[in-house]
Automatic annotation (TrEMBL):
<keyword id="KW-0802">TPR repeat</keyword>
<protein>
    <submittedName>
        <fullName>Tetratricopeptide repeat protein</fullName>
    </submittedName>
</protein>
<dbReference type="Pfam" id="PF14559">
    <property type="entry name" value="TPR_19"/>
</dbReference>
<dbReference type="InterPro" id="IPR011990">
    <property type="entry name" value="TPR-like_helical_dom_sf"/>
</dbReference>
<dbReference type="InterPro" id="IPR019734">
    <property type="entry name" value="TPR_rpt"/>
</dbReference>
<dbReference type="InterPro" id="IPR052384">
    <property type="entry name" value="TMTC_O-mannosyltransferase"/>
</dbReference>
<dbReference type="InterPro" id="IPR014596">
    <property type="entry name" value="UCP035836"/>
</dbReference>
<feature type="repeat" description="TPR">
    <location>
        <begin position="142"/>
        <end position="175"/>
    </location>
</feature>
Amino acid sequence: MSATASRSYIPRRLLTAVCVAALGISLAGCASKGRLTTGSIPSTSKPLENMNAMELNSVAAGIGKVYDKNPKDAAVGMKYASVLTMGGRTDQALAVMQQVAIHNPTDRSVLAAYGKALAGAGQFDKALDAIQRAQTPDRPDWQLLSAEGAILDQMGDPTSARMRYRKALDIKPNEPSVLSNLGMSYVLQGDLRTAETYLASAVRQPGADSRVRQNLALVVGLQGRFKEAEQIASAELSAEQASANVTYLRGMLSQQNAWNKLKDSDDKNTN
């Protein structure tokens, strides 16, 4: 399939959904710096990204009780908002981060997390302002540069977005989350071949997580290589997580009624 064909085949709604997922990756590290490590936050038995909706709700309820006791605590507030966002409760996450930002107006980590919440709620202008206020030109943070790039992509400025990603890679070479965001930038423009190049590189890097692999699987699937996409989505994961990733892949592809079309095409190509 040519790059031109790829561009005409993918609906804007699906592209936007994919790149909102990329935004989540770009900002995931911003709220995970040292201040989040505190004995007052309930510990979890496994990474948040591996939890299902019921587990995320349970964790949110536990952290919410701690937050209610001290809504000014930046670490607790950021963790609470992060869990709420992962559980799809973006409006509540934004409300939490608004309160935390009011009480911690100069904290860079808080501003970054506030930007994440704003972006999750679709308020990209405000999100960009928060991220830029968190940044310091003399000691730029690669995570904030990547986050800024993801927001600019959502605002329809891929040229500026990719400039931010490359600056982030200058600071943190081969960082998988940044490479993934750069790949997603090309997905948003329908250039699947270039996107796959960056995503494949991202997956090969130490520290690449399941979300990066999901994005590569989706891009491969959108090009009609369905069985390969399913193998990527299931690789190196527990049976539960592999099943969840394949379900995610099917759900994304079904948005453009492509599941059966891609599967039939792949079956014909392998026969």
